[in-house]
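Protocol step 4 of 6: record predicted structures for both targets in the notebook before any analysis. Target 1:
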Amino acid sequence: MPTLQKLERFGYHLIMGISGTTLSDEDKHALSELKPIGVIFFAKNFLDGLPYEAWLETFGQLHSQIQEYAERDSMFFTLDHEGGRVVRTPLPITKFPHALLLRSHAREVAKATATELKSLGINLSWAPVADIYSNPQNPIIGSRAFGDTPETAAFGVREYYLGLTEAGIVGCAKHFPGHGDTSKDSHIELPILNLTPEDLQNRELIPFKTLIEENIPLIMTAHILFPKIDPDLPATLSRPILKTILREELGFEGVVVSDDLDMKAVSDMFTQTGTVARAFYAGCDLFIVSRNIHSSSIERTYKIAEDLVDSLSNGTLAESVVEAAKERVEKLLSVTPQYSVQALNKDTLVQHAQLAIACCFENS
């Protein structure tokens, strides 16, 4: 069993989920022992059904306690907040329509969204979705995408990302190298896409290229197997996809973050010794372990942390690889604003609600 001091090594690469609206003893131990560099919030972390001021005060206390127990002055406070069906927050935080409906409003919506996220102390949004709505049978992406062609998707993600950036929120492109053509949900099983590198170049990669040209600092991996590119490993663990395509061919120099390791597409893999080392070698810098799927236990988070320490100890993972990843993450954190939780005025929220309605009409 590695010492707690050694387990902190994983904290520099960990975005961790919190169990509820207050910190449990398990949360407190994990925050103080692993010292994650960030947290991810879900609906379970907000008190729904209460007046705005009441739930916001409780969330503000949770936000402060996380920093206190993690003993970090700066952290990534993150949220999946795309609009449509991917909104975790209670009213009166605006529920904007899904990305497919935003069209010419994308940048304006992103700015309004950023204003609201900052008021929650959030500094990193897991958006925009850079996938293409290319498969009508896709159970997980669909209208979360900004378009059904590479061009419409690329235009939408660029506008949305620039809106977030201009208003002070860090954005993240997901899910590399493209989740739009799948017919399976990676939360439940591992999707397989028989696309060639040329197929990706001609379609899936175009929105990601657009965002890389705009210097997006974060790209999230897809838990998808591409047998014609890497027959053995999903994108999250694949050197040909993350190193060769993303880093070398597309020239991405920012932080590569895994999609949630609790998702069934990869969760069993990450209980196996050496998997986290494979992910680092593939090109991952940061890992999300949400504890939000299938009632995932904190034990899995510790198991992955122990696997990292053991891999460094036995030499199957080079210190230089982990150190390079840590430097990329810390470089991003050093330019990520830190916000306190505070209420927005009613007029601002009314304006945002009107914008959400406007998005739902063709000629607005």
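Target 2:
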Amino acid sequence: MAELYAPAAQDTGVKARVQRFGGYLAGMVMPNIAAFIAWGLITALFFEKGWLPNEKFAALIDPMSHVLLPVLIGYTGGRMVHAQRGAVVGAVATMGLVVGSEAPMFFGAMIVGPLTAYVLKLVDGLTADRIRPGFEMLVDNFAAGIVAALSALAGVLAIGPVMRVFTEAAGDGVRFLVQHHLLPAAAVLIEPAKVLFLNNAINHGVLGPLGIAESSDNGKSILFMLETNPGPGFGILLAYLLFGPRSLRPSVPAAMAIQFLGGIHEIYFPYVLMKPSMVLAAVCGGGAGILTFMVTGAGLVATPSPGSIFAYLAETPRGDYFGVLAGVVVAAGVSFVVGSLLLGFGRLAGDEEGM
């Protein structure tokens, strides 16, 4: 699956390595994009602040984001490394992360799934041609089961806590910029962290509590808009729609609707991962949006969750609609222009060119 999304880089420099790495990450997510769309639709429709709130249907949201999606990513990553055997152990190992962390472990699944499959591949290499006839299936299954079990235990005891430390470090960086009044520069940390699926940790773990404290004093806070702005993601998807690879364009309109209207930002992260330089478009768009919010004095009364344009309008205090909408539009426009430049305005849009 990886070759579908990995860049067709011809050199071995740092840029090519980064592109290949981003393509590999995207290769774990893009085959499962239908699951992300399904989760996005259910969230947008049946969340308590969604279009058709329904408590029974909304019970699907957390299990899908905490269990189903990470396991699918771990399964796909394992399959990319060691075929079906790697897929199975990658899925089992990901369950260790699910149990070992309270936050959705998308990025962790991208690490542990392929890593566990690679370990099994090494084990299979050691046992190949050393098994007596008739015992192949027994040895192969037990070897895979032992590797999967040990990896799952490691996920609960070690990898999950390590990923929490990584998440907290990203949050501390954002907190430093916020406390030192360097809000536009916060996009330099927020946007790359978002595409690694750390958006909820940063928003609800750092910006949300700080914003609540500020809102209680001033009646609104700009901090609620630093991570949740739907503008940067919409601009990136629009650039892909007009100038991206032709094979991807049919999937973009649905992603745009779910991201902008439904507020499910995770839907555009794979599009950035497949061409890592596109994170620059997200950073520029996010920074421009934050600067616009600051200049206009805009703020929200609470966290717009999910980050939908409808949630934005619902949480906007009277008199701030112009500033809020201006920040979203400016962010979308800047990310679209930068993203279009990075995509070469369609010059590399042929399917054979890749990204």
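Step 5 preliminary note on target 2. The first helix runs from residue 14 to 29. Residues 20 and 184 are 30 Å apart (CA to CA).
Proceed to step 6 after PI sign-off.
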